[in-house]
């Protein structure tokens, strides 16, 4: 009986992983209405660049880069972007350095969104990270905040996908078990 249950759970996990790998996050469709703010989660290439492009395109008037290293400054960001977007960085970008993981990214973003009175957010992260990120943001922001998911396309390794799927499943279980 225990062996069958274990085999069933393993099969369920494997099928879930297969589904996860073919349903990664996607970029927001063209024509998606603007939001009150943009939140970019650090940790992957192309995320900040995508956030700056959406800010420049008028998808929101303000942007938070959540999970930035505390030593990073706006001047560092400008150098990273090869001098592009200096005006937008100066006026409209906040660097959040309170968070260290996806859950604390959502908590940090909630505090920032609440301070600004924002009711909608454009969430930017990598395609493989979007499902867990959107889950955490929905948990912390609730239904009162509209979330537009905008995933940066990547070519993740099988190891990255397996690790992210495992984190997602474990986080869902932890919430379900209230631990």
Fold and architecture overview:
By secondary structure, the protein is an alpha/beta fold. It has one domain: 3-Layer(aba) Sandwich (Rossmann fold). It has 7 helices and 5 strands; from the N terminus they run αβαβααβαβαβα. It has helices spanning 2-22, 47-56, 74-80, 86-92, 102-116, 130-141, 158-177, and strands at 37-41, 63-66, 93-96, 120-126, 146-152. Strands 3-2-1-4-5 form a 5-stranded parallel sheet, with helices on both faces. Helix 1 (2-22) crosses helix 7 and helix 5 crosses helix 6 (130-141). The longest helix has 21 residues, at 2-22. The radius of gyration is 18 Å and the shape is elongated. The model has no long low-confidence stretch (mean pLDDT 95). Residues 36-154 form the DUF218 domain. InterPro entries: Cell_Envelope_Assoc (IPR051599), DUF218 (IPR003848), Rossmann-like_a/b/a_fold (IPR014729). This is YdcF family protein.
Instruction: Write down the overall geometry.
Output: elongated
CATH superfamily: HUPs
Major sheet description: 5 strands, parallel
Within the largest sheet, what's the order of strands?
A: 3-2-1-4-5
Helical content, roughly?
A: 40-55%
- How many strand segments? 5
**What is the fold-level CATH name, i.e. the topology?**
Rossmann fold
Proper CATH architecture: 3-Layer(aba) Sandwich
Helix/strand class: alpha/beta
Report the CATH C-level class: Alpha Beta
**Count of discrete structural domains:** 1
State the helix count. Answer: 7
Any idea what the radius of gyration is? 18 Å
Average pLDDT, rounded to a whole number, is 95
Instruction: Tell me what portion of residues adopts beta-strand conformation.
Output: 15-25%
Helix and strand string, N-terminal first?
HEHEHHEHEHEH
As residue ranges, the low-confidence spans are none
